[in-house]
Amino acid sequence: MHSILPLPVQPVKPGTSTGQHFWHSTERTLDSYSPVDGQLIARVYLSTRADYDKVVDTAQEAFHQWRLLPAPKRGDIIRQMGDQFRQYKRELGTLVSYEMGKSLQEGLGEVQEMIDICDFALGLSRQLYGLTMHSERPGHRMYEQWHPLGVVGVISAFNFPVAVWSWNAMIAWVCGNVCVWKPSEKTPLTALACQQIISEVLRNNDVPEGVSCLVTGARDVGEWLSRDPRVALVSATGSTRMGRAVAANVAERLGRSLLELGGNNAIIVTEHADLDLAIPAIVFGAVGTAGQRCTTTRRLIVQENIYEDVKNRLAKAYAQIRIGNPLEESIHVGPLIDKQAVAGYKAAVDEIRRMGGTFVVEPGVLSGDAYTSGCYVKPCVVEGDNAWDIVQRETFAPILYVMKYSTLDEAIAIQNGVPQGLSSAIFTLNLREAEHFLSVAGSDCGIANVNIGTSGAEIGGAFGGEKETGGGRESGSDAWRAYMRRQTNTINYGTQLPLAQGITFDL
């Protein structure tokens, strides 16, 4: 086993608790293997149903104290968490890279997102604004205020094992909620490391045990969260299939869900594009995190007059991509998360060949001393058809489909012609094209960019998508409202009791 973080992340004795999360009363364990070299990183205890119930009960108790702490004070505690993440940025970013397989620069960038959302939450702690409004009745005042929901369940995915959790947790905490985190079973150690880091902050501030909780496991734990009436909101990031199950379970009990699901993102390149800007954005969007981002560029829609030029430029750029150990800073692309993902990549390639697809950049699974885990694949580019079933689905791998168009409306129809609606982009220096793309007749996605790619998001903006992407919004803007309940208040400060709508009721 490898030790990357100088933190006490080894499991303690079953049945005990440490800091702000419970360990488990069972000897069942989950082994975390690195896709980088296939080595065992750590063995983590799995939560039983008894463990889970104990965690949620404790979280409920903690909520009654945490919600009474003034929001600016909660913000200051989160600021201290951000300071701890700054202190451990290199170690935690390295662990993210090693356990998940993304490049070291991306691992460090993910930790920076956590730091940024802590800063955002600090500012938000003094901006949880309501509204005042005029009453139709004399001597009355009306206003709205926002209160925390209670227990928030966070189900996170392997591709961003810590950043997306922090988008949810930091905002939920500053709003006065408590959190129960179910990390991906493919990346449990990064979650344990984050818990260790923030637990010290919570203890130093005498925060009640249960404000931050962690439960480990697979689908069964997610089902417990989604079916549990004690959990007011379930925020789930993952596949559309998983999201449908979570949404159905939560809706059945009339709970709240926030869903961030699949993406099938496209970039439109018009004949007015600056290709020196477009090509790097396309390549990073398509191969970053080995194609395992929800915002990965999966489709490239190119105006027919520049189609051949763009293809040639892409082939030249892909030839410069360095694939290998993501802990080496010169490497662009690391491994897929596991051999199951490699099998999905190979199945997609086989289906493309059956459909008669022509590869601009050839696919392949890499082998040899540098690729001992068996999880390394070649990013590929294929001339495809938007109507193909394989193009309509999200394959979590670095496969880019290129297709041509004639008119901009045709390009927008192709882009919107998939079940998903997360991220989209257009490259053009033509103002009319850009504005049309952003108009009501343009992109139907939750994110629409001009002259930047589909991949990546700033924490200041609300993140999320439409259609099968789930409709949720996380992180910035007014996404905080999803973690709170709205209350309308009316105060009668007069001596009369006029009723609404002029109704009279004499007794």
Automatic annotation (TrEMBL):
Active site as annotated: E260
InterPro entries: Ald_DH/histidinol_DH, Ald_DH_C, Ald_DH_CS_GLU, Ald_DH_N, Aldehyde_DH_dom, ALDH7A1-like
Pfam families: Aldedh
Alphabetical UniProt keywords: NAD, Oxidoreductase
Highest taxon, organism lineage: Bacteria
Residues in Aldehyde dehydrogenase domain copies: 25-488
Keyword Transmembrane helix (UniProt): no
EC number, UniProt record: 1.2.1.3
Region described as Disordered: spans on this chain: 1-20
Assembly, per entry: Homotetramer.
PANTHER family for the chain: ALPHA-AMINOADIPIC SEMIALDEHYDE DEHYDROGENASE (PTHR43521:SF1)
Family named by the database record: Belongs to the aldehyde dehydrogenase family.
Name used for this protein in its record: aldehyde dehydrogenase (NAD(+))
Source species: Nibrella viscosa
